[in-house]
Amino acid sequence: MSGGGGGSVAFVLHSHLPWFRRNGVFPVGEEWLFQSWSESYLPLLDTLERLAADGLTDVMTIGFTPVLAEQMADPYLLAEFHSWLGRRVLDLQWTMSAAPASDKAVLGPVWRHHAQRQARLLTQLEDGLLGEGLVAPFARLADAGVIELLGGPATHPYLPLMADPSLIRGQISAGLDVGEALTGRRPTGVWAPECGYRPAGPVGDPTAPPHDVRPDGTPLLVPSAVDLPGLEAFWAEAGVDHLVLDGPTLARPAGAADREWARTARDLHAVGDPLDVLDRPVWIADSDVAAFGRNLAVSYAVWNPHGGYPADVWYRDFHAIDLEGGFKSWRVTDTSSLAKQPYEPDAAAARVAAHADDFVGLLHAHLDPRDDDAVVVAAYDTELFGHWWYEGPQWLEAVLRRLADDPTVGTTTLAGHLARRPPAARLRLPESSWGWGKGHAAWVTDETRWIWQEIRAAEDRFATLADGPARDAAWRQLTMLQASDWPFMIARDQSTQYAVERVKTHLARFEQACAGQDLEELAWHDDPSRRPCPVPIGG
What we know:
immunoglobulin/albumin-binding domain-like, six-stranded mixed beta sheet
């Protein structure tokens, strides 16, 4: 554990994007990958390698979903990313030379900042990453004990509503296979997709209208005829011994009042407070699988639906793009105003230092220095750091360096904490997710019911297929169809048409695979590795 001997913080970053390879470019498609890689993953890698060079270990836990990791290692996408990044450099050079003097006077300094940064990224990519891919360097950091790498199911499906046990096992084993193939080690920890969990019992039926809908939008699903073990049984069977779930999934059965988990993080919990469950893992039911709950009060101090550090007036504004260069060249200035001021990197760096101090102070206020069993799980999407919050990687490095020298609060990986401090308690957890109402509302609506119906029909059709190349190709399309991204995008009204098109496309390709037609064409889009289906005939 880096830092002190009291409590610790486990930074956990969740990296996921759906399969975009040769499935669109812009505004939705491969462009999403390249933005995330250049703005978050490459800067994060640079940060971690600096920390490693200075001897820091047990720094954080990072998960790359298998469907994303495959793309991060794909030669075609790496070559496309290289071209995309090179074009960005040329665009900036042209902008700086061709812009009117008046524009140069206002935005010239920030354009030069962008140009230097883009050139560094291009050099970083060309200095080995272009050949080995973006997963290998993170694997080396894991081997060196700097980070822990999490795995997950193959295509990030919403497991609580999967009803075929053989397909659940297939998704999990295929995903862990990808992790092992790309990193050299089989993951023993996962970020459960969508923080989804289901205890033993009947699986809810998303294909039928719910028998009721709560005021927060949570559908109360009609139970299906399928009765399965809790998801922890499937994880344990696959060799997974710890996972990340949402904080309320642990807080509610521990006795915390609804939404009590979101109270201020600077309040120390009293002895016996139900929220103590958020500062230590628990065993799930009767299993040997430990659940770590996201500490939302701490995590929300950084970013939440109403603001957080990235909303500071000196940070780069995510939404404001200069028309001349096509870059984000303005600072937040005022969240209620459209009149933005040019971005000033030096002023932003000063705010990074202040916010790093503030976060470390928050941890000191939250953790009892006498309780060295405590671990705060500060969990975020990786894209927060760099993509959404431009200064995020700087802030993360500043916090980690402060904690490395801290006598009472240090950093840890989830696996490291579990090895040192196994859970002392067991909880029977409720069916839950991170989404609205902490239930199924972000994936099951009237507008998405047809998707679940099509998925169930495809799963039934898949069960009839004989072994062979066609079944392997159909498996790939079925797992793409099962991705949780498509119903989520529709339920949240985010690129809805693209999500609908992807569902219909994978349905068509699934039927094409079942018929054994044009399998090479399918591989061109979706199967560079040609991995065989892990689900045995007959389940």
